[in-house]
Amino acid sequence: MTPGESLAQDLLEAGNAGFQAAVHPMRVLFWSADASGSCEVVSTNWAECTGQGFEKVRGLGWLDAVHGEDRAMVVEALRVAIEARRGFYLHYRLQRADGSARRVLHVAAARVLPSGQFNGLVGTLTDEADTEAGEKSLQRSEQQVFEFLEGVGLAAIAINTQGRLVHINQVMAARVGQSTENLLGCDWINQYVCSEDRSRLAALFAGNASLASLPRELEYQVETVTGQCLFRWHLTLIRGPSGVPVSIAMMGSDITEWRRMGDSLRLNAQVFDNSNEAMVISDRRNNIIAVNRAFTRLTGYEPEEVLGRNRRMLSAGTQDAAFYQAMWKSIVENGYWRGDIWDRRKDGSCYPKFLSITAIRDEAGEIARYSAVFYDVSDRKEMEAQLENLAHFDSLTGLPNRMLLHDRLEQAIAMAERQRQHFALLFIDLDGFKPVNDTHGHSAGDEVLKQVGQRLNTVTRGMDTAARLGGDEFVVILTDIRNRENAERVAEKIIGELSVPYELAGKTISISASIGASLYPGDKKMGTDLLRTADEAMYQAKREGKRRVKFYSGFA
Fold it and tell me: How many Å apart are CA 198 and CA 180, to the nearest integer?
Protein backbone atom coordinates (compact mmCIF):
# COMPACT_ATOMS: atom_id res chain seq x y z
CA MET A 1 0.00 0.00 0.00
CA THR A 2 1.36 3.46 -0.93
CA PRO A 3 1.53 6.35 1.57
CA GLY A 4 -1.38 7.92 -0.29
CA GLU A 5 -3.54 4.85 0.11
CA SER A 6 -2.66 4.58 3.79
CA LEU A 7 -4.18 8.03 4.35
CA ALA A 8 -7.40 7.39 2.45
CA GLN A 9 -9.30 6.72 5.65
CA ASP A 10 -8.09 10.03 7.12
CA LEU A 11 -9.48 11.82 4.08
CA LEU A 12 -12.85 10.11 4.28
CA GLU A 13 -13.10 11.12 7.92
CA ALA A 14 -12.26 14.71 6.94
CA GLY A 15 -15.26 14.71 4.61
CA ASN A 16 -15.87 16.37 1.28
CA ALA A 17 -17.80 19.48 2.29
CA GLY A 18 -15.67 22.09 0.50
CA PHE A 19 -12.00 22.97 0.83
CA GLN A 20 -10.33 22.07 4.13
CA ALA A 21 -6.96 22.17 5.88
CA ALA A 22 -6.23 18.82 7.57
CA VAL A 23 -3.80 18.36 10.44
CA HIS A 24 -0.72 16.42 9.31
CA PRO A 25 2.91 16.00 10.51
CA MET A 26 5.38 18.73 9.60
CA ARG A 27 7.65 16.62 7.39
CA VAL A 28 4.85 15.38 5.12
CA LEU A 29 2.35 17.43 3.09
CA PHE A 30 -1.11 15.90 2.67
CA TRP A 31 -3.11 16.60 -0.51
CA SER A 32 -6.31 15.41 -2.16
CA ALA A 33 -8.30 16.28 -5.27
CA ASP A 34 -11.86 15.56 -6.37
CA ALA A 35 -12.88 13.54 -9.43
CA SER A 36 -12.19 16.50 -11.74
CA GLY A 37 -8.68 17.06 -10.35
CA SER A 38 -9.47 20.14 -8.24
CA CYS A 39 -7.64 20.29 -4.92
CA GLU A 40 -10.05 20.08 -1.97
CA VAL A 41 -7.88 19.22 1.05
CA VAL A 42 -4.31 20.12 2.06
CA SER A 43 -2.54 19.71 5.40
CA THR A 44 -2.20 22.61 7.81
CA ASN A 45 1.55 22.77 7.21
CA TRP A 46 1.06 23.62 3.49
CA ALA A 47 1.23 27.39 3.97
CA GLU A 48 4.27 27.21 6.24
CA CYS A 49 6.17 24.97 3.81
CA THR A 50 5.23 26.73 0.55
CA GLY A 51 4.29 30.26 1.60
CA GLN A 52 1.04 29.85 -0.32
CA GLY A 53 -2.10 30.99 1.51
CA PHE A 54 -4.99 28.54 1.86
CA GLU A 55 -7.28 30.89 -0.09
CA LYS A 56 -5.10 30.31 -3.18
CA VAL A 57 -4.80 26.52 -2.93
CA ARG A 58 -8.32 25.45 -3.85
CA GLY A 59 -8.98 24.05 -7.33
CA LEU A 60 -5.82 24.22 -9.45
CA GLY A 61 -4.35 27.08 -7.43
CA TRP A 62 -2.05 24.67 -5.58
CA LEU A 63 -0.07 24.27 -8.81
CA ASP A 64 1.29 27.81 -8.28
CA ALA A 65 3.46 26.29 -5.53
CA VAL A 66 5.06 23.92 -8.07
CA HIS A 67 8.35 25.09 -9.57
CA GLY A 68 7.68 26.81 -12.89
CA GLU A 69 9.91 24.41 -14.85
CA ASP A 70 8.07 21.37 -13.44
CA ARG A 71 4.49 22.66 -13.61
CA ALA A 72 3.66 21.29 -17.09
CA MET A 73 4.89 17.83 -16.06
CA VAL A 74 2.69 17.84 -12.93
CA VAL A 75 -0.35 19.07 -14.87
CA GLU A 76 0.07 16.25 -17.40
CA ALA A 77 0.49 13.61 -14.65
CA LEU A 78 -2.67 14.90 -12.98
CA ARG A 79 -4.60 14.84 -16.27
CA VAL A 80 -3.55 11.27 -17.07
CA ALA A 81 -4.35 10.10 -13.54
CA ILE A 82 -7.88 11.60 -13.65
CA GLU A 83 -8.60 10.15 -17.11
CA ALA A 84 -7.24 6.71 -16.22
CA ARG A 85 -8.76 6.85 -12.73
CA ARG A 86 -5.54 5.72 -11.09
CA GLY A 87 -2.82 7.19 -8.90
CA PHE A 88 0.63 8.48 -9.82
CA TYR A 89 4.19 8.52 -8.48
CA LEU A 90 6.10 11.70 -9.38
CA HIS A 91 9.28 13.59 -8.42
CA TYR A 92 9.24 17.38 -8.85
CA ARG A 93 10.11 20.66 -7.10
CA LEU A 94 7.97 22.80 -4.81
CA GLN A 95 8.75 26.43 -4.05
CA ARG A 96 9.57 26.98 -0.37
CA ALA A 97 8.23 29.92 1.61
CA ASP A 98 11.71 31.53 1.45
CA GLY A 99 11.79 31.25 -2.36
CA SER A 100 14.13 28.25 -2.55
CA ALA A 101 13.05 24.93 -4.11
CA ARG A 102 12.59 21.59 -2.39
CA ARG A 103 12.41 18.31 -4.30
CA VAL A 104 9.43 16.19 -3.27
CA LEU A 105 8.08 12.76 -4.01
CA HIS A 106 4.31 13.00 -4.69
CA VAL A 107 2.58 9.63 -4.24
CA ALA A 108 -1.15 9.72 -5.08
CA ALA A 109 -3.71 6.92 -5.04
CA ALA A 110 -7.18 6.69 -6.52
CA ARG A 111 -10.03 7.32 -4.06
CA VAL A 112 -12.98 5.00 -4.63
CA LEU A 113 -16.42 5.08 -3.03
CA PRO A 114 -17.95 1.85 -1.60
CA SER A 115 -20.01 1.66 -4.79
CA GLY A 116 -16.79 1.41 -6.80
CA GLN A 117 -17.18 4.90 -8.29
CA PHE A 118 -13.96 6.90 -8.78
CA ASN A 119 -14.02 9.84 -6.36
CA GLY A 120 -10.69 11.59 -6.86
CA LEU A 121 -7.10 11.31 -5.65
CA VAL A 122 -5.45 11.31 -2.26
CA GLY A 123 -1.75 11.40 -1.49
CA THR A 124 1.34 12.70 0.26
CA LEU A 125 4.24 14.96 -0.74
CA THR A 126 7.44 13.93 1.04
CA ASP A 127 10.69 15.86 0.96
CA GLU A 128 13.21 13.81 -1.02
CA ALA A 129 15.73 14.33 1.73
CA ASP A 130 13.57 11.99 3.81
CA THR A 131 13.20 9.32 1.13
CA GLU A 132 16.45 9.57 -0.84
CA ALA A 133 18.54 7.30 1.37
CA GLY A 134 15.91 4.58 1.47
CA GLU A 135 15.22 4.78 -2.27
CA LYS A 136 18.92 4.69 -3.14
CA SER A 137 19.33 1.66 -0.89
CA LEU A 138 16.46 -0.11 -2.67
CA GLN A 139 17.69 0.87 -6.12
CA ARG A 140 21.16 -0.38 -5.23
CA SER A 141 19.69 -3.64 -3.94
CA GLU A 142 17.61 -4.07 -7.11
CA GLN A 143 20.65 -3.35 -9.29
CA GLN A 144 22.68 -5.90 -7.32
CA VAL A 145 19.97 -8.46 -8.06
CA PHE A 146 20.14 -7.69 -11.79
CA GLU A 147 23.95 -7.87 -11.79
CA PHE A 148 23.76 -11.20 -9.99
CA LEU A 149 21.25 -12.55 -12.52
CA GLU A 150 23.61 -11.59 -15.35
CA GLY A 151 26.33 -13.88 -14.02
CA VAL A 152 24.48 -16.96 -12.77
CA GLY A 153 24.70 -18.96 -16.01
CA LEU A 154 20.99 -19.75 -15.84
CA ALA A 155 18.12 -18.10 -17.69
CA ALA A 156 16.99 -15.00 -15.79
CA ILE A 157 14.46 -12.19 -16.23
CA ALA A 158 12.65 -9.58 -14.15
CA ILE A 159 9.21 -8.18 -14.95
CA ASN A 160 7.37 -5.28 -13.37
CA THR A 161 3.86 -5.44 -11.96
CA GLN A 162 2.40 -4.73 -15.42
CA GLY A 163 4.21 -7.74 -16.87
CA ARG A 164 6.79 -5.58 -18.70
CA LEU A 165 10.35 -6.84 -18.90
CA VAL A 166 12.73 -4.70 -16.84
CA HIS A 167 15.74 -7.05 -16.98
CA ILE A 168 16.84 -10.06 -19.02
CA ASN A 169 20.29 -11.64 -18.88
CA GLN A 170 22.34 -12.68 -21.90
CA VAL A 171 21.50 -16.37 -21.43
CA MET A 172 17.75 -15.84 -21.75
CA ALA A 173 18.09 -13.17 -24.47
CA ALA A 174 20.03 -15.69 -26.57
CA ARG A 175 17.32 -18.31 -26.03
CA VAL A 176 14.66 -15.85 -27.21
CA GLY A 177 16.86 -14.73 -30.11
CA GLN A 178 16.69 -10.98 -29.42
CA SER A 179 19.09 -8.39 -28.03
CA THR A 180 18.51 -7.22 -24.47
CA GLU A 181 17.89 -3.69 -25.76
CA ASN A 182 15.04 -4.87 -27.98
CA LEU A 183 13.50 -6.97 -25.23
CA LEU A 184 13.45 -4.46 -22.37
CA GLY A 185 9.99 -2.98 -21.92
CA CYS A 186 8.23 -5.73 -23.88
CA ASP A 187 5.04 -7.43 -22.65
CA TRP A 188 6.72 -10.65 -21.53
CA ILE A 189 3.60 -12.68 -20.83
CA ASN A 190 1.75 -11.86 -24.06
CA GLN A 191 4.79 -11.88 -26.35
CA TYR A 192 7.00 -14.72 -25.12
CA VAL A 193 4.99 -16.96 -22.79
CA CYS A 194 3.31 -19.79 -24.75
CA SER A 195 -0.40 -19.30 -25.33
CA GLU A 196 -1.52 -22.22 -23.13
CA ASP A 197 0.20 -20.71 -20.09
CA ARG A 198 -0.61 -17.01 -20.58
CA SER A 199 -3.95 -16.82 -18.80
CA ARG A 200 -2.58 -18.71 -15.79
CA LEU A 201 0.38 -16.32 -15.48
CA ALA A 202 -1.74 -13.24 -16.09
CA ALA A 203 -4.01 -14.31 -13.22
CA LEU A 204 -1.01 -14.87 -10.92
CA PHE A 205 0.44 -11.44 -11.60
CA ALA A 206 -2.87 -9.53 -11.53
CA GLY A 207 -2.70 -6.84 -8.85
CA ASN A 208 -0.16 -6.00 -6.16
CA ALA A 209 -2.15 -7.80 -3.47
CA SER A 210 -1.73 -11.18 -5.17
CA LEU A 211 1.99 -10.68 -5.79
CA ALA A 212 2.81 -11.04 -2.10
CA SER A 213 1.49 -14.63 -2.22
CA LEU A 214 3.24 -15.71 -5.43
CA PRO A 215 4.65 -19.25 -5.36
CA ARG A 216 8.40 -19.56 -4.88
CA GLU A 217 8.66 -21.97 -7.83
CA LEU A 218 6.75 -21.77 -11.10
CA GLU A 219 6.71 -23.62 -14.43
CA TYR A 220 5.68 -22.16 -17.76
CA GLN A 221 6.64 -22.47 -21.43
CA VAL A 222 8.52 -19.81 -23.38
CA GLU A 223 8.69 -19.23 -27.13
CA THR A 224 12.39 -19.55 -28.02
CA VAL A 225 14.38 -19.69 -31.25
CA THR A 226 14.28 -23.49 -31.01
CA GLY A 227 10.53 -23.66 -30.30
CA GLN A 228 8.49 -23.99 -27.12
CA CYS A 229 10.61 -24.75 -24.06
CA LEU A 230 9.45 -25.49 -20.53
CA PHE A 231 11.28 -23.58 -17.80
CA ARG A 232 11.11 -24.00 -14.05
CA TRP A 233 11.56 -20.59 -12.40
CA HIS A 234 12.58 -19.47 -8.92
CA LEU A 235 10.70 -16.25 -8.06
CA THR A 236 11.93 -13.36 -5.89
CA LEU A 237 9.64 -10.40 -5.17
CA ILE A 238 11.26 -6.93 -5.20
CA ARG A 239 9.48 -4.13 -3.34
CA GLY A 240 9.60 -0.35 -3.65
CA PRO A 241 10.20 2.24 -0.89
CA SER A 242 6.65 2.06 0.45
CA GLY A 243 6.64 -1.76 0.51
CA VAL A 244 4.59 -2.10 -2.68
CA PRO A 245 5.86 -4.83 -5.05
CA VAL A 246 7.61 -3.29 -8.07
CA SER A 247 9.07 -6.29 -9.90
CA ILE A 248 9.50 -10.05 -9.85
CA ALA A 249 12.93 -11.55 -10.52
CA MET A 250 12.91 -15.06 -12.04
CA MET A 251 15.85 -17.45 -12.38
CA GLY A 252 15.06 -20.54 -14.42
CA SER A 253 16.22 -23.87 -15.80
CA ASP A 254 15.08 -25.45 -19.07
CA ILE A 255 13.39 -28.73 -18.09
CA THR A 256 11.88 -29.54 -21.51
CA GLU A 257 13.92 -32.71 -21.91
CA TRP A 258 13.07 -33.78 -18.38
CA ARG A 259 9.39 -33.64 -19.16
CA ARG A 260 9.86 -35.64 -22.33
CA MET A 261 12.03 -38.15 -20.55
CA GLY A 262 9.55 -38.56 -17.72
CA ASP A 263 6.55 -38.81 -20.02
CA SER A 264 8.16 -41.51 -22.18
CA LEU A 265 10.17 -43.44 -19.63
CA ARG A 266 9.51 -46.92 -20.99
CA LEU A 267 13.22 -46.70 -21.68
CA ASN A 268 15.44 -49.36 -23.17
CA ALA A 269 18.18 -50.72 -20.96
CA GLN A 270 21.03 -48.95 -22.74
CA VAL A 271 19.55 -45.47 -22.28
CA PHE A 272 18.59 -46.28 -18.71
CA ASP A 273 22.08 -47.48 -17.72
CA ASN A 274 24.07 -44.83 -19.56
CA SER A 275 22.08 -41.76 -18.57
CA ASN A 276 23.93 -39.06 -16.63
CA GLU A 277 20.79 -38.51 -14.53
CA ALA A 278 19.79 -40.76 -11.67
CA MET A 279 16.80 -42.96 -12.49
CA VAL A 280 14.61 -45.17 -10.34
CA ILE A 281 11.77 -47.52 -11.33
CA SER A 282 9.42 -48.57 -8.54
CA ASP A 283 6.29 -50.73 -8.43
CA ARG A 284 2.78 -49.55 -7.62
CA ARG A 285 3.60 -49.75 -3.89
CA ASN A 286 6.68 -47.57 -4.52
CA ASN A 287 9.14 -50.39 -3.84
CA ILE A 288 12.30 -49.98 -5.91
CA ILE A 289 12.72 -52.50 -8.75
CA ALA A 290 15.51 -50.85 -10.80
CA VAL A 291 18.15 -48.13 -10.50
CA ASN A 292 20.87 -46.99 -12.89
CA ARG A 293 24.57 -46.26 -12.40
CA ALA A 294 24.01 -42.52 -12.01
CA PHE A 295 21.75 -43.32 -9.04
CA THR A 296 24.65 -45.06 -7.31
CA ARG A 297 27.05 -42.19 -8.06
CA LEU A 298 24.64 -39.63 -6.64
CA THR A 299 23.26 -41.46 -3.58
CA GLY A 300 26.13 -43.81 -2.68
CA TYR A 301 23.78 -46.83 -2.62
CA GLU A 302 24.62 -49.94 -4.65
CA PRO A 303 21.62 -51.57 -6.42
CA GLU A 304 21.51 -54.55 -4.03
CA GLU A 305 21.17 -52.16 -1.07
CA VAL A 306 17.95 -50.58 -2.33
CA LEU A 307 16.16 -53.14 -4.55
CA GLY A 308 12.91 -54.25 -2.93
CA ARG A 309 12.96 -51.40 -0.44
CA ASN A 310 10.51 -48.48 -0.40
CA ARG A 311 11.67 -45.17 -1.87
CA ARG A 312 10.93 -43.59 1.51
CA MET A 313 14.37 -44.81 2.62
CA LEU A 314 15.90 -41.94 0.60
CA SER A 315 13.81 -39.21 2.24
CA ALA A 316 15.63 -36.52 4.23
CA GLY A 317 12.55 -36.01 6.41
CA THR A 318 12.48 -32.25 5.80
CA GLN A 319 9.13 -32.18 3.97
CA ASP A 320 5.91 -32.54 5.97
CA ALA A 321 2.98 -34.86 5.33
CA ALA A 322 1.03 -32.14 3.48
CA PHE A 323 3.88 -31.82 0.95
CA TYR A 324 3.80 -35.54 0.12
CA GLN A 325 0.01 -35.63 0.03
CA ALA A 326 0.02 -32.85 -2.58
CA MET A 327 2.79 -34.57 -4.55
CA TRP A 328 1.01 -37.93 -4.76
CA LYS A 329 -2.30 -36.26 -5.51
CA SER A 330 -0.67 -34.64 -8.56
CA ILE A 331 0.84 -37.96 -9.65
CA VAL A 332 -2.49 -39.79 -9.42
CA GLU A 333 -4.60 -37.04 -11.00
CA ASN A 334 -2.16 -35.62 -13.56
CA GLY A 335 0.18 -38.55 -14.13
CA TYR A 336 3.31 -36.69 -13.03
CA TRP A 337 4.96 -34.41 -10.46
CA ARG A 338 8.04 -32.23 -10.83
CA GLY A 339 9.81 -30.09 -8.27
CA ASP A 340 12.65 -29.65 -5.80
CA ILE A 341 12.90 -31.99 -2.86
CA TRP A 342 15.48 -32.89 -0.22
CA ASP A 343 16.78 -36.47 0.00
CA ARG A 344 19.45 -38.31 1.99
CA ARG A 345 22.60 -40.05 0.71
CA LYS A 346 23.97 -43.28 2.12
CA ASP A 347 26.53 -41.34 4.21
CA GLY A 348 23.66 -39.48 5.92
CA SER A 349 24.21 -36.13 4.19
CA CYS A 350 21.15 -34.35 2.83
CA TYR A 351 21.04 -32.65 -0.55
CA PRO A 352 18.46 -30.85 -2.71
CA LYS A 353 17.49 -32.42 -6.02
CA PHE A 354 15.15 -31.73 -8.89
CA LEU A 355 12.82 -34.72 -9.19
CA SER A 356 10.44 -35.73 -11.96
CA ILE A 357 8.07 -38.62 -11.19
CA THR A 358 5.80 -40.14 -13.84
CA ALA A 359 3.06 -42.72 -13.30
CA ILE A 360 3.21 -45.58 -15.86
CA ARG A 361 -0.17 -47.20 -16.43
CA ASP A 362 -0.98 -50.66 -17.72
CA GLU A 363 -3.40 -51.48 -20.54
CA ALA A 364 -6.33 -51.30 -18.12
CA GLY A 365 -5.37 -47.74 -17.18
CA GLU A 366 -4.21 -48.68 -13.68
CA ILE A 367 -0.90 -47.40 -12.28
CA ALA A 368 1.61 -50.23 -12.60
CA ARG A 369 4.91 -48.47 -11.98
CA TYR A 370 6.50 -45.15 -11.21
CA SER A 371 9.55 -43.76 -12.99
CA ALA A 372 11.69 -41.13 -11.33
CA VAL A 373 14.49 -39.04 -12.81
CA PHE A 374 16.49 -36.67 -10.63
CA TYR A 375 19.73 -34.71 -10.27
CA ASP A 376 21.57 -32.70 -7.61
CA VAL A 377 20.66 -28.98 -7.58
CA SER A 378 22.94 -27.89 -4.71
CA ASP A 379 24.67 -25.32 -6.92
CA ARG A 380 21.37 -23.83 -8.07
CA LYS A 381 20.05 -23.70 -4.51
CA GLU A 382 23.20 -21.86 -3.46
CA MET A 383 22.66 -19.31 -6.23
CA GLU A 384 19.00 -18.93 -5.23
CA ALA A 385 20.10 -18.30 -1.64
CA GLN A 386 22.54 -15.63 -2.87
CA LEU A 387 19.76 -14.03 -4.91
CA GLU A 388 17.43 -13.96 -1.89
CA ASN A 389 20.21 -12.46 0.23
CA LEU A 390 20.91 -9.70 -2.30
CA ALA A 391 17.22 -8.87 -2.62
CA HIS A 392 16.31 -8.92 1.06
CA PHE A 393 19.37 -8.07 3.19
CA ASP A 394 21.40 -4.90 3.60
CA SER A 395 24.86 -5.44 2.08
CA LEU A 396 26.63 -3.37 4.77
CA THR A 397 25.12 -4.62 8.05
CA GLY A 398 23.63 -7.95 6.97
CA LEU A 399 20.31 -6.92 8.52
CA PRO A 400 17.01 -7.26 6.64
CA ASN A 401 16.45 -4.35 4.24
CA ARG A 402 13.26 -2.43 3.45
CA MET A 403 11.93 -5.21 1.21
CA LEU A 404 12.25 -7.93 3.84
CA LEU A 405 11.10 -5.55 6.60
CA HIS A 406 7.75 -5.05 4.85
CA ASP A 407 7.34 -8.84 4.55
CA ARG A 408 8.19 -9.32 8.26
CA LEU A 409 5.78 -6.52 9.16
CA GLU A 410 2.96 -8.22 7.23
CA GLN A 411 3.80 -11.50 8.99
CA ALA A 412 3.77 -9.78 12.39
CA ILE A 413 0.36 -8.27 11.69
CA ALA A 414 -1.04 -11.62 10.51
CA MET A 415 0.32 -13.43 13.59
CA ALA A 416 -0.96 -10.75 15.96
CA GLU A 417 -4.43 -11.00 14.40
CA ARG A 418 -4.41 -14.78 14.46
CA GLN A 419 -3.10 -15.17 18.03
CA ARG A 420 -4.61 -11.95 19.45
CA GLN A 421 -1.20 -10.55 20.37
CA HIS A 422 0.37 -7.11 20.48
CA PHE A 423 3.64 -6.00 18.94
CA ALA A 424 5.70 -2.81 18.81
CA LEU A 425 7.58 -1.14 15.98
CA LEU A 426 10.63 0.91 16.99
CA PHE A 427 11.96 3.50 14.51
CA ILE A 428 15.60 4.25 15.40
CA ASP A 429 17.65 7.20 14.17
CA LEU A 430 21.27 7.70 15.25
CA ASP A 431 22.08 11.03 16.97
CA GLY A 432 25.31 12.66 15.88
CA PHE A 433 26.10 10.24 13.06
CA LYS A 434 26.68 12.81 10.30
CA PRO A 435 29.77 14.29 12.06
CA VAL A 436 31.26 10.76 12.14
CA ASN A 437 31.35 10.69 8.33
CA ASP A 438 32.46 14.32 8.12
CA THR A 439 35.25 13.99 10.66
CA HIS A 440 36.47 10.40 10.34
CA GLY A 441 35.41 9.47 6.79
CA HIS A 442 32.78 7.18 5.30
CA SER A 443 34.74 3.99 6.05
CA ALA A 444 34.53 4.82 9.77
CA GLY A 445 30.84 5.61 9.36
CA ASP A 446 30.28 2.25 7.67
CA GLU A 447 32.09 0.46 10.50
CA VAL A 448 29.88 2.21 13.08
CA LEU A 449 26.75 1.14 11.16
CA LYS A 450 28.01 -2.46 11.09
CA GLN A 451 28.52 -2.40 14.85
CA VAL A 452 25.07 -0.84 15.33
CA GLY A 453 23.59 -3.80 13.43
CA GLN A 454 25.54 -6.25 15.61
CA ARG A 455 24.43 -4.52 18.80
CA LEU A 456 20.78 -4.53 17.73
CA ASN A 457 21.00 -8.28 17.21
CA THR A 458 22.41 -8.78 20.70
CA VAL A 459 19.64 -6.86 22.48
CA THR A 460 16.68 -8.31 20.55
CA ARG A 461 15.22 -11.80 20.67
CA GLY A 462 15.44 -14.34 17.87
CA MET A 463 11.71 -13.92 17.26
CA ASP A 464 12.12 -10.15 16.72
CA THR A 465 13.35 -8.37 13.56
CA ALA A 466 16.04 -5.70 13.38
CA ALA A 467 16.28 -4.06 9.92
CA ARG A 468 18.13 -1.18 8.26
CA LEU A 469 16.03 1.24 6.22
CA GLY A 470 19.00 3.11 4.79
CA GLY A 471 21.41 5.79 5.97
CA ASP A 472 21.44 5.79 9.78
CA GLU A 473 17.81 4.67 10.19
CA PHE A 474 16.92 1.28 11.65
CA VAL A 475 13.68 -0.45 12.62
CA VAL A 476 13.01 -3.15 15.20
CA ILE A 477 9.79 -5.22 15.31
CA LEU A 478 9.15 -6.54 18.84
CA THR A 479 6.66 -9.39 18.53
CA ASP A 480 4.30 -10.66 21.23
CA ILE A 481 4.75 -7.89 23.81
CA ARG A 482 2.39 -7.72 26.78
CA ASN A 483 2.15 -3.97 27.15
CA ARG A 484 3.70 -0.61 26.39
CA GLU A 485 6.06 -0.90 29.34
CA ASN A 486 7.66 -4.05 27.85
CA ALA A 487 8.38 -2.19 24.62
CA GLU A 488 9.68 0.85 26.49
CA ARG A 489 12.15 -1.28 28.48
CA VAL A 490 13.56 -2.80 25.29
CA ALA A 491 13.76 0.63 23.62
CA GLU A 492 15.66 2.07 26.60
CA LYS A 493 17.98 -0.95 26.51
CA ILE A 494 18.66 -0.32 22.81
CA ILE A 495 19.42 3.36 23.48
CA GLY A 496 21.84 2.35 26.23
CA GLU A 497 23.56 -0.23 24.05
CA LEU A 498 23.92 2.08 21.02
CA SER A 499 25.27 4.90 23.24
CA VAL A 500 28.29 2.86 24.41
CA PRO A 501 31.36 4.41 22.67
CA TYR A 502 32.62 2.73 19.51
CA GLU A 503 36.33 1.84 19.30
CA LEU A 504 37.64 2.07 15.71
CA ALA A 505 41.35 1.71 14.95
CA GLY A 506 42.40 3.60 18.04
CA LYS A 507 39.61 6.17 17.76
CA THR A 508 36.72 6.48 20.20
CA ILE A 509 33.46 7.57 18.61
CA SER A 510 30.36 8.46 20.62
CA ILE A 511 26.83 8.65 19.25
CA SER A 512 23.38 8.02 20.69
CA ALA A 513 19.95 7.13 19.37
CA SER A 514 16.41 8.54 19.32
CA ILE A 515 13.53 6.09 19.06
CA GLY A 516 9.92 6.51 17.99
CA ALA A 517 7.50 3.67 18.77
CA SER A 518 4.15 2.52 17.40
CA LEU A 519 2.01 -0.15 19.00
CA TYR A 520 -0.19 -2.69 17.25
CA PRO A 521 -3.16 -2.81 17.21
CA GLY A 522 -3.51 0.35 19.29
CA ASP A 523 -2.05 2.89 16.85
CA LYS A 524 -2.66 1.72 13.28
CA LYS A 525 -3.68 -1.46 11.48
CA MET A 526 -1.51 -1.16 8.34
CA GLY A 527 2.26 -1.72 8.19
CA THR A 528 2.97 1.49 6.27
CA ASP A 529 0.95 3.47 8.84
CA LEU A 530 2.92 1.95 11.71
CA LEU A 531 6.19 2.98 10.04
CA ARG A 532 4.84 6.49 9.47
CA THR A 533 3.60 6.99 13.04
CA ALA A 534 6.81 5.57 14.54
CA ASP A 535 8.80 7.88 12.27
CA GLU A 536 6.76 10.86 13.50
CA ALA A 537 7.29 9.81 17.12
CA MET A 538 11.04 9.51 16.50
CA TYR A 539 11.21 13.10 15.23
CA GLN A 540 9.31 14.21 18.31
CA ALA A 541 11.96 12.45 20.42
CA LYS A 542 14.61 14.39 18.47
CA ARG A 543 12.83 17.69 19.12
CA GLU A 544 12.58 16.96 22.84
CA GLY A 545 16.33 16.55 23.23
CA LYS A 546 17.38 13.25 21.58
CA ARG A 547 18.60 10.05 23.25
CA ARG A 548 15.10 9.12 24.32
CA VAL A 549 12.09 7.04 23.29
CA LYS A 550 8.78 8.61 22.33
CA PHE A 551 5.56 6.65 21.79
CA TYR A 552 3.04 7.68 19.16
CA SER A 553 0.20 6.68 21.55
CA GLY A 554 -0.83 3.89 23.88
CA PHE A 555 -2.98 0.84 23.23
CA ALA A 556 -6.58 1.67 22.30
Answer: 22
